[in-house]
């Protein structure tokens, strides 16, 4: 049985008689899609509706510094067999697996850098201007440049203008809309403006209002899931961060090659000539600070420094000052032990009871230069610092070569977990982490890491863990075994398959069903509800009487008002 779609515009004398938005709405639904809809409904081919085989991942930030969204893109391409478009800012280079995957297409937006040059006194105006420019760029990419997807997957935060733009795009392009809640954007804004600021309240309203409109939601902790459900009206699935397969303990050969590559970075201290610079003097080409190569055999040096890694965004929610204070305390205590003896023999024994420490700090952020200036003034004897930015391929190798990780993340909301710790566990690296409300979901104190609340606690933990390093540090080895167990218990691909893929599939199905029902409803209105009045209009119009024409226009306007909200 065929279905005839009637065109309501053939008998209008022009669009001047109706609202332009009403005209465009009806024009889009009738002229552009009527043949497709009729054939799909007649043939029963609902698979053609809303199943385009594409996903769009939206990151209003540096893609290279958004590993979770990179992993989402890889899983959508590998495990869901979708073509994936990523809309994000440029900057850091993403992982090679993302760049080389044939089904992943990166669309880079230009950052409005000129806004940073505006004076701080205009900060409220700067926020509005930045949001407007970002919103305009997102609309261009999501409405025009990127092919229509089945699903939009967006990172939150930032919430404004991301959630608004993606919601509009998903409605216009009839796609599902899934939010991956990493944190709450309004809490990050409150760090600089204060909780009671009107912009923070407005930001929270937008975040909550548009977050509730999502087809589906993912989040990173059970604590965040509870907050979303109880206070936001959002039902979310917990997708814990898990390390991908390339986060693993590094082989000896990989360690040696890595330290050879970064030898120049290690030679240049942040401040004055330090303990690490002296250790690199007169080294052979086949030798590094940590390894040596003899007759094609690589081994770890027994007198090597302990390598401690911390990855930071150099932002206010990570108090890097705690680590500096702990380093000073460790340095003074080790110096006091090594210098407080009567004989050189005893002094040497005590000196090697605790190793020298090399802290390698990775990451980029606004407070980096400030802390580098502080490091220059420390004048440490047994501790050294290096700041680096490593490639996406070298960063896992660094974690897999380190002896201990330190996490300073405290969370602006207290509800998210640091992904850097997940990566460290994937490499079998134990972690000392700042303690806050939900960190116990990840770091089990005394099993795979230790929790601290002050710089003195962290200094004590460094002394406990590195006593007798490298051969007789039982406490460190015990935590390392726990970290290995945690890292090997789950991987990203498995977690995504169990938690995210069902939600993505469900969201796509809901989107397709809603589109299908909308099409049927619209066609039913056109073929049944409008037909009688439509034909009446045509008859009256053909009568060529002035009063009949006025009545006809009134009836048509009534019809348009009734269907414009469909």
TrEMBL record:
Q: Which residues form the Glycosyltransferase subfamily 4-like N-terminal domain?
A: 80-237
What are the alphabetically sorted keywords of the record?
Answer: Endoplasmic reticulum, Glycosyltransferase, Membrane, Transferase, Transmembrane, Transmembrane helix
How does this chain sit within the bilayer? Single-pass membrane protein
Q: In which pathway does it act?
A: Protein modification; protein glycosylation
Looking up Gene3D superfamilies in the UniProt record yields:
Glycogen Phosphorylase B (3.40.50.2000)
Q: What is its main location?
A: endoplasmic reticulum
Recorded catalytic activity of this chain's protein = an N,N'-diacetylchitobiosyl-diphospho-di-trans,poly-cis-dolichol + GDP-alpha-D-mannose = a beta-D-Man-(1->4)-beta-D-GlcNAc-(1->4)-alpha-D-GlcNAc-diphospho-di-trans,poly-cis-dolichol + GDP + H(+)
The record's section on InterPro entries has:
ALG1-like, Glyco_trans_1, Glyco_trans_4-like_N
The record's GO molecular-function terms, alphabetically, read: mannosyltransferase activity
GO CC term, one of those recorded = endoplasmic reticulum membrane
Q: Where is the Glycosyl transferase family domain?
A: 353-462
Report the subcellular localization: Endoplasmic reticulum membrane
By its UniProt entry, which Pfam families does this protein fall under?
Glyco_transf_4 (PF13439), Glycos_transf_1 (PF00534)
The protein in question is named Beta-1,4-mannosyltransferase
Which organism does this record belong to?
Brassica napus (Rape)
